[in-house]
Design brief:
Length: 237
């Protein structure tokens, strides 16, 4: 489904990604983990069309989308839930959700999509007329994910969905992500919570300093001593 081949991204003259390659197959849930500053957000923004790669190739469903204008990525089937949610806080929850279905194919199914989002996040049902800015952090993240799902994407990109949330809400969020994937949407998850991300994903990529330094089955990577020491705080004798 998604093929990222040797992409490089610069911020001005400063390189942010150095020849990164990864794949997400149809129906997969794949995670990208690593420390702050590793380039995870830059990578996911490049896949969403928000940062143009200076070289390399992005292919989605067999088509080269490397030069596709940013505003056409959603129509191609890719939706992103950005770090920090970026809701329109003065607008209602319903208005924020409806903004996700602006492309014609999604607008035609807006009511069905809304029902599916509310089934996934029932806590939002009574919040639809409320300003999005009045919601708790967890509820705002539900709106952000719901807004992306309203576009009916084939691939959902999630950038740090657990950031700033209470542990009990994080568990709910990861449960919802698992359900989204089980219903057929491919997911690429960028996450600092390494243990939970790798327990959720089928495959994982580890990034450091703008490069992929490790990849494989998530369950296997989670048992590797270097991963346990670097990210889980487990001391290895």
């Amino acid at each position: 489904m998604l093929e990222v081949t040797d992409i490089k991204v610069n911020y001005g003259a400063a390189p942010a990604l150095w020849g990164v390659s990864l794949q997400v197959q149809s129906g997969e849930l794949v995670c990208v983990v690593g420390p702050n500053g590793a380039g995870k957000t830059t990578l996911i923004n490049a896949i969403a069309g928000l940062h143009k790669a200076s070289s390399g190739m992005l292919k989605f469903n067999g088509q080269d989308i490397s030069q596709l204008p940013s505003h056409k990525f959603c129509g191609a089937g890719i939706a992103i839930v950005p770090e920090g949610r970026r809701l329109f806080t003065g607008m209602t929850v319903l208005e924020n959700l409806e903004l996700g279905s602006f492309i014609a194919s999604a607008k035609a199914l807006r009511q069905r999509s809304l029902e599916q989002v509310l089934a996934l996040f029932p806590a939002l049902v009574k919040k639809l007329p409320d300003p999005a800015g009045s919601l708790s952090g967890g509820q705002q993240q539900m709106v952000a994910i719901g807004r992306a799902l309203m576009a009916r994407p084939k691939l959902l990109l999630l950038d740090e969905p657990s950031l700033g949330l209470a542990p009990v809400i994080v568990l709910e969020m990861f449960k919802a992500i698992r359900e989204i994937n089980a219903l057929g949407t491919s997911v690429l998850l960028v996450e600092q919570n390494v243990a939970m991300a790798m327990q959720l994903a089928s495959r994982a990529y580890v990034m450091e300093e703008g490069r992929i330094v490790m990849q494989g089955q998530a369950s296997e990577l989670l048992t590797r001593p270097e991963i346990q020491k670097a990210y889980l705080g487990v001391e290895i004798d």
